[in-house]
Design a protein that fits this description.
Elements lengths: L24 H23 L2 H17 L4 H28 L4 H24 L19 H16 L5 H21 L5 H25 L18 H27 L6 H30 L4
Length: about 300
């Protein structure tokens, strides 16, 4: 009796129904392309159009009036961000590289942080300055936010190297950390909402490019036992990310719609701040939700 011929595309490592980690890298590449496209749209809408400049600049102006008493607190937090992000990422990466022997994953995560920081600096300095469209604003380009890029990249570096059962919690905690950092730059008058959104997209772009490398190189430990196998892999973590992203998007859209329909005049200035903060929350938590879904989908299955 002849042995049955293996089906095309089925590898020996998938015997018994086992699924390889990182089996569809095209999904990560598509996600990276979408991040790049979203970055281009963010730059065009908020920098190259009068409406976008007005919305962005109004949020920045409102931050100065609404949150002036809290600026000292947020300034202290922002001054800690570079060292805090570096320390957080370094501790986790060293532990993973030495104790867990995930050197390839740690190297890829370091690459994500370095590439995100470098590309953020290059984009900020190479993109054209804001054109004069009749909106009172600083002419120099501030997109994307360097502090937010570093915070998001450090959080995503941790997300890359932890085991799959820890990724749902890591995405939610890292997303909240990045959102808080981005909101702090807005409150302190350092950056407009679009600068923060662009920073999330830069960090997400490099994380998606590194994703298949981390999954394939660490196929032995990138095995996901399913949601609910521990508190860190609870379904409530991605649900929290989705909930906050949807609430943020709904709040931003609702506030912008209200302003456009009612034209409340000078009284609308605080509303622009809250719309910008909601947009920051929506983007940061949406990135966490989508990365959790994609990495859970593409992790190995026993």
């Amino acid at each position: 009796m002849r042995n049955p011929r293996p089906q095309p595309g089925v590898r020996a490592g998938r015997a018994g129904g086992r699924k390889r980690a990182g089996r569809a890298p095209v999904l990560f590449w598509l996600g990276a392309v979408l991040c790049a496209a979203a970055f281009a749209c963010t730059y065009y809408v908020f920098v190259r159009t009068a409406t976008g400049q007005f919305v962005d600049e109004s949020a920045l102006a409102a931050a100065g009036s609404v949150w002036r008493p809290a600026r000292r607190l947020f300034l202290g937090f922002l001054n800690l961000i570079p060292n805090l992000s570096a320390a957080l990422a370094a501790v986790v990466l060293l532990w993973v590289a030495l104790a867990r022997r995930r050197r390839h994953a740690a190297a890829a995560a370091v690459g994500v942080v370095a590439a995100s920081a470098a590309s953020s600096w290059l984009l900020k300095n190479l993109l054209p300055d804001r054109p004069d469209l009749g909106i009172p604003t600083l002419a120099h380009n501030s997109l994307p936010s360097g502090h937010t890029t570093l915070a998001a990249a450090a959080a995503l570096a941790v997300f890359l190297v932890v085991s799959p059962r820890w990724r749902p919690f890591s995405a939610a905690a890292g997303g909240l950390y990045a959102v808080l950092t981005g909101a702090a730059t807005l409150v302190n008058g350092w950056h407009r909402p679009s600068d923060v959104v662009a920073a999330f997209l830069v960090a997400g772009f490099w994380t998606l490019l590194a994703g298949p490398l981390v999954l394939r190189a660490g196929e032995g430990w990138n095995v996901f036992g399913g949601y609910g196998s521990s508190w860190a892999s609870s379904r409530w973590w991605p649900r929290l990310c989705w909930l906050l992203s949807l609430l943020g998007a709904a709040a931003a859209a609702g506030i912008y719609w209200f302003i456009a329909r009612t034209d409340p005049g000078a009284g609308a200035l605080p509303l622009f701040f809250w719309a910008g903060a909601a947009l920051i929350t929506a983007t940061g938590m949406l990135l966490g939700a989508l990365l959790t879904w994609l990495f859970s989908l593409q992790s190995g299955r026993a």
